[in-house]
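Our platform keeps sequence and structure together, in a single record for each protein. Nothing more is needed to write down the fold, since each code stands for a local backbone conformation. An entry from our holdings is shown next, in its original layout:
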Amino acid sequence: MSVETSTYRSRAPVRISFGGGGTDVPPYCDEKGGCVLNAAIGKYNYGSAKWREDGKIVIESADYVESLLYHNTKEMEYDNKLDLVKAVIKKMNNSGRGVDVYVRSEIAPKSGLGSSASAFVALIGMFDRMNDGKMEREKIAEMAVRLEREELGNFGGKQDQYAAAIGGINFLEFEEGGKVKVEKVRIRTSHVLELEKSLILVNAAERVASGDIITDQMQRYKKKEGSTEGALDRTKEIAKEARRALEKGDLEEFASLLDEAWKSKKKFSPLITNSKIDGIYEAAKKAGALGGKISGAGGGGHMFFYCEANKEHKVAEKMRSLGLVPEGVKFDFEGLRTWEI
């Protein structure tokens, strides 16, 4: 019997969210409909795999410096040790064959950039290729949502998985019954380049678990507490307005809407911001940022800023003075990629 020598690889991007985040989470999206404007960026989760002839399953993580060995999928239990990888193997390795799986991320956990969703998409896409590659990208995103929510019990929205699978700058609508509609934003190449020139990304602070923030936010929505419902309603409209601003090339209006989106987001839950995060945001604005926000549930993780023309270096200098590491933003328009060597 011949031994297969092919190695399968994959990568999927993470994303930044311009507006509407939080409206993709039940029960809000089921009751009122949600929408999100987001963009995949050129930072990735990678997967690599190769079939084994001895039936063993070996999982290696470069990020956690951890290696796990199992004799079959029945031995794999969810114990907070690479559970994400285990969930995909249990779902996708229908043949029960042995396999070596290696994972690596360019993004640390709790980044606010949708890293776990990106990893799910990369692994599902890789195993799909190993199984003859018949899944459409939207189906890969749907499976990523189901595995993270139902198999592992991690609560959250759905925007991350679609950004990772599809790539690009997208407007996503979330409807009752779990239906997701994805539309590419029609934006000129010159405006894409201007966005990339003007955006600064920083990892602002250690973040609490996103599920805790989202749970608090949705409980407040269900109980009609404070300004949560009104803020969610407004951020949904901001997402629509920001899309229109991008499509007509009005980037100053887009930047102003980012600023308003951040003000609305802070009303979702008191866990979303703190004095450190507010201080970073105000410092960025004084240095030349026109608008910006946290990307993700909040409480820490990555923030990004749209800078006034030719002021991005001033904002970057200010971030460095605060002990942060500013980075540029490059968009990814390909989404999930898989290949074989």
